[in-house]
Amino acid sequence: MKQDVVKQSVFNRLLRRIDSYYPETCRHRKIPNAEVLFHVLRIMRYGTKWRDTGDNLGERYCWQAVYKRYRRWTTDGTIRRMFKSVVRRYASERLHQDPLWFQELFVDTTYVKNIKCIDCAGRNPTDRGRNGTKISAICDRERKHVGMITAPANVSDCTLIIPTIDSIVTDLQPDGRRTIHLIGDRGYSSRSLSEQINQHDRRFTLIASKKKNCKLPVNRQSQSRRGKQDMRQRYKIEQSFSNQKDHERMRVRFDKYIVMFQSFMMLSETVRMMDCFDTI
Predict the structure, then answer these.
(1) With contact defined as beta carbons under 8 Å apart, do 47 and 249 qualify?
(2) pLDDT at 29 (0 to 100)
(3) What count of other Cβ atoms lies within 10 Å of the Cβ of residue 246?
(4) At what angle do helices 63-75 and 258-274 cross, to 10 degrees?
(5) What's the pLDDT at 228?
(6) How far is CA 271 from CA 7, 8, 55, 264, in A?
(7) How are beta strands 104-114 and 131-139 bridged, if at all?
(8) Which of 119, 132, 175, 250 is disulfide-compatible with 153, CB 3.0–4.6 A?
(9) pLDDT tens figures, 225-239
(10) How far apart are CA 39 and CA 18, in angstroms?
């Protein structure tokens, strides 16, 4: 196992989870899960083509075997179940260290170029109207995404914030007494949006800076001293997208269907969270 793709300890833990969800003995297998997982991680890290994996498989296998196995992991929910279990374990470890760890969360969106796609694509306003996909994510202090969704590039950020909150797979405040500050940029500066979030889930309070053409602030919390201090840490969500795009497969979407790209998103975050704790 090459260390520049992923750490050996992380690879072993990923393989144990894959084998538990998708054992090799349940069906006829021509290629082991370990070899498929290595080539999938290699594609995610360096952004290589699926056809390039055939050079390292030898005469017994072909690149279609790796692609079909990864597509099966996507369609039967193996990748999604692994991501959810890792996020729950990561949240429990963080809450055990600090009960107030998830009291500040950061929300933002980023664009991904599309090369070959037939769904979840829209005109990207930052790329001369070419097709693109938007990723809306919520991260914690350690720049790890606890909730992610995808949408066409021409969808507004304000309409994605509530579905992004619903994508959080674990309870970040088990006692339910503390308020979670959801910190965003000026794109989320809207009083109606803040009221919608409070009606949808009272645990979340939107913290966003006021636009120049707005006479009233979003809410009282945004104008408070603590709210202004929280907004100074909004750079962490930008760094989380930058760290995620260290995996070349996350920079440009080559996948025809969005479910394949979403699997790469969840696998990327799973690897990043496993780097934090050896117990995950």
Answers:
(1) yes
(2) 61
(3) 11
(4) 90
(5) 80
(6) 9, 11, 25, 11
(7) antiparallel
(8) 132
(9) 777 888 889 999 999
(10) 14
